[in-house]
Specification:
This protein has about 300 residues and is of the alpha/beta class. Among the domains are: about 80 residues, Arc Repressor Mutant, subunit A; about 110 residues, Rossmann fold. Helix content is about 45%, strand content about 15%. A hairpin with a 2-residue loop joins strand 1 and strand 2. Helix 2 packs across helix 5, helix 7 crosses helix 9 and helix 9 packs parallel to helix 10. It is globular. The two termini are about 40 Å apart.
């Protein structure tokens, strides 16, 4: 380049990482799909053993295992592979603390193909077609709820509600966030105020978490309900993206009125990133429940 020297040329690594990131994603999706991580967790730690356990060829087994080692999810020494701690916690199937395989399946089978329509969306502003049927809805729901469980886990780990004693979990789509906080704070009582139709799922989740003695489940229309009480923690997870600006303004005025002075509050976005830009989407229900509607979304929504 005229007037410049190579010593002054910026490193292109960041651009290349972004441009080629899809390759690693696809390798991860396929490694998860064939059960590579769970195979290694079960002791199939060589290429021949992985191939036999997963049903792929030795060549493919080595390509995927080496790719995952290159990305830091596996270690490789003397021809044997082992899971790194994050892979053991989230990718090892039944041995995982939280198995992310359903979320990776959702990304690989629904979200990734949907993104392939993005050029058409850029050129025309027309949303992509998710082409949903019963089977794909099952994949969608399993993936979103798995991601939601991870989100709730991280919420409990990173958001300090140790000083709270009286929480309101309002109008969300999953009780998991409040339940994670309750697990970490034995003195926290929570009122779950959800839209009608969600109460059974919330009650089941509360019972399964072993905190029924510290929980109250109520129903009310999310857009208009006026919670009664003085809460020192207010959670409104997965609310904002479901309502208009005007409705949200009223919702949060009502929540502010129910908050004690100095109350902690949290309003997280949707479980899957990106805006919905066309017709309707299926509502992700609390604790795995849902209602169905037609779905067309722009790439970026899944």
């Amino acid at each position: 380049m005229k007037g410049s020297t190579m010593t002054n040329t910026p490193d292109a690594a960041r651009i290349l990482d972004i441009a080629t990131g899809y390759m690693a994603s696809k390798q991860l999706f396929e490694a998860s799909r064939i059960g590579l991580f769970s195979a290694i967790a079960a002791g199939a730690d060589t290429v021949p053993a992985i191939a036999e356990r997963t049903g792929v060829s030795p060549r493919i087994a080595q390509i995927l295992a080496d790719a995952m080692a290159g990305k830091g999810l596996l270690t490789r020494a003397d021809g044997r592979y082992a899971l790194e701690p994050d892979a053991a916690a989230y990718l090892a199937g039944e041995a995982s603390a939280l198995d992310l395989a359903p979320f990776l399946t959702f990304l690989g089978e629904i979200s990734y193909p949907h993104w392939l329509q993005f050029a058409h969306t850029v050129d025309t502003t027309e949303p992509g077609d998710l082409q949903m049927d019963d089977a794909r809805w099952g994949t969608f729901m399993a993936g979103v709820m798995t991601y939601n469980a991870l989100h709730a886990q991280e919420f409990g780990r990173l958001v300090d509600l140790s000083a709270a004693t009286n929480a309101l979990d309002f109008g969300g789509l999953s009780a998991g966030f409040a339940l994670e906080a309750m697990k970490r704070n034995a003195g926290l009582r929570t009122t779950f105020l959800y839209a009608p139709g969600f109460e059974d799922g919330v009650a089941e989740a509360v019972e399964a978490a072993g905190v029924a003695d510290r929980a109250t489940v109520e129903t009310g229309d999310t857009a208009t309900a006026q919670p009664q009480g003085a809460y020192d923690a207010v959670l409104a997870n997965h609310v904002i993206h479901r309502f208009s600006a005007e409705e949200n303004a009223q919702i949060f005025r009502n929540l502010r009125a129910a908050a004690a002075p100095g109350a902690a509050s949290n309003a997280s976005p949707r479980s899957t990133p990106g805006p919905t830009t066309a017709t309707s989407t299926r509502r992700v229900g609390c604790c795995g429940r849902s209602s169905r509607s037609t779905a067309r979304r722009s790439p970026g929504a899944t």
